Sequence to fold (472 residues):
Amino acid sequence: MIRTLWARIAGALLLAGAAGPGLAAEPEFKPGACVGDYAGVPYKVDCGTMVVDEARGDPKSRRITFPVAIVRALEPKGLPPVVYFHGGPGGDAVEGVPTRLKRPAAKEFIAVDQDWIFFDHRGTGLASPSMNCPGTALTDAGPPSEKDADGIIACLKAFKAQGVDLTRYNAVEVAHDVQDMRKALKLDKIDLYGGSYGTRVQAAVQTHAPQGVRAVVQDSPWPPEAAWTVGGPEMVASSLYVVMAKCEAIAECASRYPDLKARLQATAAKFMAAPQSIGGKTYSADDLGGYLMDASYFAARVLPQQLSKIIAGDMSPVDEFMASRDYYAEGQFMTHLCKEEIPFEKRSGIMAGAKGDPVAELMVAPMERIHDICAAVDWGEISPIEQQPVKTTIPTLFLAAEIDPGCPPELTEAAARGYAGSQVVIVTNATHGVGGASPCTRKMIRNYFVDPSQPVDRSCLPAKDTPMAFVY
Fold:
């Protein structure tokens, strides 16, 4: 669902006066129609909207909303419902629920014997306000141009000028929204499942609002103590080099794509020196770097083939990526990072760590722009606890991919030390988002929620030395 920035701001203003004078309004769940095409969905789904204070506990606060879709269990067994946390920040979940449920794999672990609750985090998706910034592009590496960065700054300032409190759209606030939702739906216990940046929000729940949480699954975890930009370019380059090493270890892949690492570094150096005109189009270092980060997230099996094309001057893989760089609500992405990530990092450290590796250097400029955006807006008081490792006794299963430029497995292994009794599973040859990617991990998730006290069955996982199956 695409709406203009001004329509979203207008929707937020309509909610501004909903709280009664002198009294902080109670959170409320309002049943309503589901969004999307549910024809053929084999589940009963109840939908509605949560209405909460933007500034929780402030009697003068505007009221804001976020959508909820409750997928009822096919064969309920009295287990707590699973609350699903989408990635991003700036991603969404509710509008895509019917598509997700129509996939055959869904029946293996989603709402089999316990309800699953999907919601859009405040400030994104179908929430109101939803802080999308039309006309701008943004990837995990950051804004791909100065124009995009300036557009996002103007967008954030426009929201702020209309009364939106930008300091209230972050993991801590979403964590409390989860508790408001739990109470409004009259749930005694809940389980949590999240992927990517959704795990960062889960961590906030476990730190700030853990009431009623029975068990947690974190898929491709991003822990609070991790640094988004400082070290980020090296994480991307390292992930790419893992894929190339796996290619080099297979005779056919190595013969098709020889010296891939050296050739990619030479190509990256050319882009770092100056924009490249290829096939009548001009490509920047930001364009190539953004593609490399995105591709190593999800396209490792075709990466050697695609990189070989790019090195030879066929930029079609980059063209395809550039056409789809509007997958986040840019404003909400920044309200999270500028409040809970970037204040703990130094802009100068980005190039300091990447310097000398042209592949890593491709990601430096867009990550520096993230800092520039954060510096342009006042984010209020910054709490050091948002950069501290989580300490919890809530049973937690970590699922990490061996190949992940944004959430590498070493971050998971370090973070898990603060989770008493946690279990860590690292899946060989897998990429970002391993939870629903195979029958093995889907079964693992379902069985873990049935009884989180038991060790998960790892016998179905590929061995550590399993060769990667590349697509040629």
Remarks:
- Residues 73 and 111 are 4 Å apart (CA to CA).
- DSSP finds 17 helices and eleven strands in the chain.
- Residues 232-248 form the longest helix (17 residues).
- The radius of gyration is 22 Å.
